[in-house]
Amino acid sequence: MLEVLKVIIFGIVEGITEWLPISSTGHLILLERLLQLKQNQDFLDMFYVVIQLGAILAVLVIYFHKLNPFSPKKTEKQKMMTFQLWIKVVIGSIPAAVIGIPFNDFIEEKFNNAYVVAAMLILYGVLFIVIENYQKGKEPKVKKISHLSIQMVLIIGIFQMLAMIPGTSRSGATIVGALMLGVSRAVATEFTFFLAIPAMFGASAVKLIHFGLNFTAMQVFLLLLGTAVSFAVSIVAIKFLMRYIKKNDFKIFGYYRIVLGIIVLLYFGIAALLA
What we know:
Elements: H1 2-17, H2 24-34, H3 41-50, H4 52-62, H5 64-67, H6 76-111, H7 114-135, H8 150-162, H9 170-180, H10 185-211, H11 217-244, H12 251-274
Helix pairs in contact: 1-2, 1-11, 3-10, 4-10, 4-11, 6-8, 6-10, 7-9, 7-12, 8-9, 9-10
């Protein structure tokens, strides 16, 4: 029963932090210390990634009409624009795929530690504040996803690739990249959601293949439960974020990241000294 409660908490944290630009890894690394699941490490490494599928399903549900090029409610022009949207998503996913697939194990081995996570939390927190201050009062250059050029899409994709470094936040990195290009907050956030679809499906597939089919019945249950909770919470988190950015900027998330980064740094630094 206690394991079930822990998984529910992990699902809630994943559902919130996957979409708010505050780094799911930064939160999970702390949560792991507080709520250790009694499972082997191979399962845990896979579990923390695959529960993201629930978050992705939330995007597909919320934006089903917008992402569906075959919707009978769309005109021929709208269907063509939907296909163009998917082409941009594919192009934007290329940098992460090119680097992510061959170097995934290397990046995890070299960068998956608390100090890198803390540094990335703080760095991108500062970037959010600096960029928002720089853009204050300026009119965005891009107010529709259809106005994103291929060059812009590739640059945003490169920022998503940078999010492979733990603590960066995939949504945080891509939003920062888009804002730097003069993209509006709403478009930057929506495109970040869409860009996550192939990235997170791909990451989950890699982890599942690596883990194999060596599941116990309890592990299957815990994985499905975590995914379901992540899905439900993601629905709320996505809708909240889209409402929030209509009237606010991203600076609050920048300050939050800096504070969290300092907490992670202090916690693990003190723990290392006392060990």
